[in-house]
Specification:
This protein is an alpha+beta fold and 272 residues long. It has one domain. 23% of the residues lie in helices and 26% in strands. The chain contains six helices and 14 strands. The strands form three sheets. Strands 1, 2, 3, 4, 5, 6, 7, 8 and 9 form a nine-stranded mixed β-sheet that branches. It has a three-stranded antiparallel β-sheet with strand order 12-13-14, with no helix packed on it. The longest helix has 22 residues. It starts with 5 loop residues before the first strand and ends in a 5-residue tail after the last strand. 36% of the residues are buried. One of its GO terms (cellular component) is membrane. One of its GO terms (biological process) is glycoprotein metabolic process.
Amino acid sequence: MLPNRLLVVATLCSLSTSAPLEPQDALTILDTTDRKDMSGKAGDPPQKYFHESTFDPHYDGRFAEKALGYQEQKAALKNLVRTFLETMKDLGIETWLMHGSLLGWWWNKQIMPWDSDVDVQVTEPSMYFLATYYNMSVFHYKTPRLPAGRNYMLEVNPNFSNGDQSDWRNVIDARWIDTESGLFIDITTARYNLTHLSGQGMMSCKDGHEFRDTYIFPLRDTIFEGVAAKIPYRYKDLLMKEYGDWSLTLKDFANHVFDEVTMEWAPKLSNR
C-alpha cells in the first residue's frame, strides 16, 4: 500500500492495478487547453517522440511558456527529483543517478544550481515494467514542501524497446515531468549489449554511453536532495571518464563558487 502522500489521479485506482493511459487521456486530465503549446514538435523530425520546448531544451513546452527564474527553478528541480525517487521506491523500481546529477551528488549530494535537468537510469526490465503499467500515469503530491499540491507525469517513449543507438532521435526512453513548470527528469535504459566487442558484461544506452556492469552494480545507497537514492558502484571512475579529473576538484565553474564551509555552490553576484 502506498503512503497517503502519493495519489495517482490519472487512473483513479490503486497503483498496483492501474492500466496505462493513452497520451491524450492523461493530457485531458491535466487540462492543458488553456496553455499555448510551446513544444518544438513542428520543427522536429516526425520520428522523434519527445519534443523539448522552443525556449529551453530542458523544459516541456506543453506545460510551460517560459523558463523559471534562478531560485524558482532550483526549488522546482528539488521537488522534481524528490518526488521521482520516492515514487520509484514505492513502485519497487531500482534507479540510479548518472551524468550531471551524479556529479552534483559528488560535490554536495544536491543538484548543481546551474543545471536545469536531472539524469537517471534504470535497467531494461524496469523500463518494460514502467511502460506496461504506469505509462502516462499522473502522480499528485501534496506535502509540506508542496502545500498546494502538484502533478507529475511519467511518460514512456514508445520507441524505448528499440535499443539501437542508430535511433538517435529517441535516446531518452522516459521522462518524469512537472506538469506545472515543464521541467523534467530524463530516464534512460541501461541495456546489456550481448554483441559488444569487449565481451560479456558490457552495458550501453541509446545516447552512446557504454560501461561494464561492474561499474554500475552493486548499486550504493546514499542520499540525494534529502531523500534515499542510489549511485553506481564505481561512481568516481564513471565521472572522471565522462567529465575529466578536473570536474571533481574545480571549485569555480558556471559562474558559481563552491563554499567548503557551507558545502554549497554559491552564485556570483550576477546570478542572484
